[in-house]
Every structure is written in C-alpha cells, then in structure tokens.
Amino acid sequence: MSRVVLVVISFCLLVGAAALLIRDAVGLPTGVVTYQQVLSRPEAHLYYPGAHVRESHGEDEQPSLLEGNRPAYVQTFLVVSDATRQQIDDWYSTKLTASGWHVDSKADPLVSYARGTRESFSIWFYRVAPAGIEWDGKGTLYTIGYQIAPCSGLGCIW
C-alpha cells in the first residue's frame, strides 16, 4: 500500500515540475507563473539608461476562485536624473514596439503596452513620491510594471 502511495506522489511531483518547465508558443510558462519566471524575462529589467532602482518587488501568480488567478508581476521604481518624462516615454516606445509590443492605453500619467494575450508592461510617471520611496524631487521618478497573465485554455497553445 505504501509503495502505491509513493508512486502516486512521485508521479504528481513529476507532473507538477513538468508544468513549470513547459512553455507556450512564445516562450511563456504554461503552468502557474512564478515571480522568478517573470524576473527571467528581459522586460522585467528594461530600464532607461542611467536609471537608478529605488525599490522593486513582485509576486507569484495568486489563485483566486472569485476573481480568477491574479498575474505574476514585478514592479520597479526608478529615478533618472538627466532625462525628461517625454524622453523616457519615447525610449520605452521605441524599445517595446521593436520587440512586438503595442500601446494598449495612454492616459496621463500611465502608459500601458501589451504583447499577445498574456503580457503587459506599464509605465507610471510620478510628481510626488509614493510612501516608502526615497526621492528628492530631482529628475524623473517613474515605475515600470511587467506581468504575465495566467495561462488559460484560450491563451496558451499546449
């Protein structure tokens, strides 16, 4: 009896590990998306040249029966001392559109980009630093957010 239980548990662990390694047609994970998987993508570290990280955080995909799973994400606060908001916005536009992203929405002070059905990238510009973020008011303070939406049967090619 205990041998059967051990075999079943081993099988479940192998299936779970395989789900973490399987990627969809564009290279996104098809299992539950982790924070580390988000960090492994180049967009998670797409910083304007000369930008200084003030704070960065994120989370794994969070299951929710009521709302559907919340996406895994990273959010990074950055300060650039020698660039205007427009220069930063233009730089991101050039970089992202060259990589297949398109503007999803633009409403001051937020610009959102999308690629495919599961990736989103946002830029939020600040005039006042949020609580807990050090900024002396010089230069441009902004945040980038990159997230990978959960894989549904509609959004992934198995």
Describe the structure.
With 158 residues, the protein is an alpha+beta fold. The chain has one domain (2-148). The protein is built from three helices and six strands; from the N terminus they run H-H-E-E-H-E-E-E-E. The protein has helices at residues 2-21, 35-39, 85-98; strands at residues 52-59, 72-80, 102-107, 110-115, 119-126, 140-148. It has a six-stranded antiparallel beta sheet. It is globular and about 65 Å long. The chain starts with a helix and ends in a 10-residue tail after the last strand. The model is unreliable at 4-20 (pLDDT under 50).
The oligomerization state is single chain
Largest sheet, if any? 6 strands, antiparallel
Based on CA atoms alone, the radius of gyration comes out at: 19 Å
Strand content: 25-35%
The overall number of domains is 1
Write down the secondary-structure element order.
HHEEHEEEE
Q: What is the helix tally? A: 3
Measured as a percent range, the helix fraction is 10-25%
Distance between the termini: 35 Å
Arrangement of strands in the largest sheet? 1-2-6-5-4-3
Low-confidence region ranges: 4-20
* Tertiary shape: globular
Q: Give the structural class.
A: alpha+beta
